[in-house]
Amino acid sequence: MLTHNLGFPRIGAQRQLKKASEQYWAGNITRSELFLTAKKIREENWLLQKQAGIGMIPCNDFSFYDQVLDMSLLVGAVPPRYTPVATDIKENTEIDLYFAMARGYQQHGLDITAMEMTKWFDTNYHYIVPEFTAGQQFRILSDKLFNEFNECQRVTGTTPKPVLIGPVSYLLLGKEKDNQPFDRIDLLKQLLPVYIEVLKKLEDNGAIWVQIDEPFLVTDLTEKQKQAFEYAYKEIRRQCGDLKILLATYFEGLQENTSLAVNLPVCALHIDLVRAPQQVDEVVKAAPPRLSISLGVVDGRNIWKNDYSKSLAIIEKAKAVIGEDRLMLAPSCSLLHSPVDLEGETALDAEIKNWMAFAKQKLDEINELQQIVAGDTTLLKKNAAIIESRRNSTRIHKQTVKDRAAAIKEADATRTSEFTVRQQIQQQRFQLPLFPTTTIGSFPQTEEIRQLRAKLKKGDLTQQQYESEIEDATISAIRVQEEIGLDVLVHGEFERNDMVEYFGEQLDGFLFTKNGWVQSYGSRCVKPPVIAGDVSRTGDMTVRWSAFAQEQTNRLMKGMLTGPVTILQWSFVRDDQPRWQTAFQIALAIRDEVVALEKAGIKVIQIDEPAIREGLPLRKKDGPAYLEWAVKAFRLSASGVKDETQIHTHMCYSEFNDIMEHIAKMDADVITIETSRSQMELLEAFARFKYPNEIGPGVYDIHSPRVPTVEEMTHLLEKATALLPVKNLWVNPDCGLKTRRWPETIAALKNMVQAAQQAREKATAPVLI
Ligand SMILES: Nc1nc2c(c(=O)[nH]1)N[C@@H](CNc1ccc(C(=O)N[C@@H](CCC(=O)N[C@@H](CCC(=O)N[C@@H](CCC(=O)O)C(=O)O)C(=O)O)C(=O)O)cc1)CN2
Ligand SMILES: [Zn+2]
């Protein structure tokens, strides 16, 4: 049985790539220094995989920012607005063009916006959305793929397996950006010849296997999309017949696309047997004799040790039908979504550490499974004992928590009065102007703020010194907001390392790692906490900071919490009970915090749920069941307060059009959402749906240092005014400002407040005849 890997984390075990990229962007290191860091990471990863005994080592899974953006460079899908970056400034090279597409370009008198970014399926990874125009032409533009293939060959002395995103998925991941309507899938005719040229070039370089990822095969497909798959792979087969294609699917089962997938003329098909273990029977039965099946049995999306007996059962089932020779063994998906190395976790309790596996350990699991299939029973027994110790551990089961969650009633998830009543009460109480202004919560997490936490950890600062510094930062952020003239203030979240990790650290049932970083986008990483057992709140989590902040100002201070679905979605979740059960436990904990904030005099409380859309199952038919419990979890967290307390929620990074009804059911008094990059497109959906509650459509993109003008924001507010009742509109940025610096933050917010003032004047001006 051949073993292989679908992709390895590329940030480096110590986040070397993050640090080097940010240094390069700041102009502190040279291009060659950045490239050297990247090269070292690749070498380290390849050798590590070789040492772990992985049969086929992937290459081109490395990326300086994002693998979808890499594809856009490979096939020359560069939007024309970036032409000046590559042509006018002679010191720029391909990497600068690449970063300009990812991050925008505001240098040398140019002001070019970044490409859109969105969620990679149901993960917390974000990719750069390809932009397509009707009749667009493609050509091989970048050598990265070929260079890395040759480099890997040199370093490992083996023939690597290059990884590409398949032509159909690549097109489906993108967006039409043209004045004339067209269907991006029609671009396949132009795109495919370039793919074939790429494959031929790989073959010329000595490639034997190529992994082509087509994750869209696990989603609902139209007839036309299915035909696109058939056409693409027939052509590839016809023109690159000697190359072995491994078609990779993940994150769901193939379901009704099984027959389509197994009949595509490729050599091997990879399936995710962690998400969809039941699909193994159908897939191996349907597989024609030429097709090998790659069994994705080791979870690439979670940190728990593999249950070998379960995996073995799957492998044996497949073996009985198609024989060992036609089987391959792999993780369920790329290990991009796993932290790098468990070894570094010296602070984890030994028993619990023994329940876990990070990327490096997952490679060993693949190897051990191979040995077990070959007859090694010791490894199997050892693993069974560990799995058993976790299952029965008293450290993770709390009867009182289970009982409380079991006793949840519908009334617990419903506010006292309906929205219109609450709105009146809140208006009376707050007396806010039309177009009230606010921000989403965080202010710049500067190097100085991060250093404070680092010093606290090292013992260079006492808890008291640390808190006093954070108090100063909070006070100064409040003064800035008052001066700018914002209506509803925030404390700035300076005390938080991350909006999920911060809560994970305080909740019972959670564990956290020292170095369990996972890439979220570009150089930005997260350290997802681990939900190991029943979750409960042991005391106040945010009251101290919110109350402190409210004491500093006469204006309204918004309390700031992360919602249960987002905490669930951005953590490594226990896999021994359904996700909804865990979500309800978290919801009750957050609910208690909301009530505690109200008691402490906080009148406006925001419960962020940016990940609610991301958790939506990939198949439409599974959506309603998820949304039912996800919305209920949010409502549970929000419904413990009086009518006079205003509950906000916030969402970003997603397309919400298809879940509008459920967003309305969340019944937040105010929702603030990311809309600016789609030019308020999303608001049309809110308008069509007649969204009843108050809404703050983001008027500026916070992902770029670019300061938006008053006019741009006024224009967006006019659009919003045309679509929704004025009395329901708020004015705010797209998302939190933690990744920004102070100067641009202040400048942008000043402009935003001015735009709100203009909108107010316009709305209240007498109509002149
Ligand atoms: N979990 C999560 N998912 C999310 C978001 C989010 O905010 N959180 N936002 C959306 C976009 N994603 C984002 C993800 C991460 C970041 C981000 O800013 N991450 C920071 C890390 C944040 C953090 O945990 N910081 C810690 C530790 C930071 C650190 O690097 N510490 C040093 C020590 C300090 C030093 O000596 O320099 C170290 O460990 O090496 C802290 O502030 O305390 C980064 O990559 O730079 C932003 C957006 C969607 N998904
Ligand atoms: Zn956000």
Automatic annotation (TrEMBL):
InterPro entries: Cbl-indep_Met_Synth_N, Cobalamin-indep_Met_synthase, Met_Synth_C/arc, UROD/MetE-like_sf. 5-methyltetrahydropteroyltri-L-glutamate binds at residues 18, 119, 124, 524-525, 570, 614. The keyword Transferase applies. Catalyzes the transfer of a methyl group from 5-methyltetrahydrofolate to homocysteine resulting in methionine formation. Belongs to the vitamin-B12 independent methionine synthase family. GO terms for biological process: L-methionine biosynthetic process; methylation. Keywords: Amino-acid biosynthesis, Metal-binding, Methionine biosynthesis, Methyltransferase, Repeat, Transferase, Zinc. L-homocysteine binds at residues 440-442, 493, 608. L-methionine binds at residues 440-442, 493, 608. PANTHER family: 5-METHYLTETRAHYDROPTEROYLTRIGLUTAMATE--HOMOCYSTEINE METHYLTRANSFERASE (PTHR30519). CDD domains: CIMS_C_terminal_like, CIMS_N_terminal_like. This is 5-methyltetrahydropteroyltriglutamate--homocysteine methyltransferase. HAMAP family: Meth_synth. Its EC number is 2.1.1.14. It comes from Niastella yeongjuensis. Zn(2+) binds at residues 650, 652, 674, 735. Zn(2+) 1 binds at residues 650, 652, 674, 735. Binds 1 zinc ion per subunit. Pathway: Amino-acid biosynthesis; L-methionine biosynthesis via de novo pathway; L-methionine from L-homocysteine (MetE route): step 1/1.
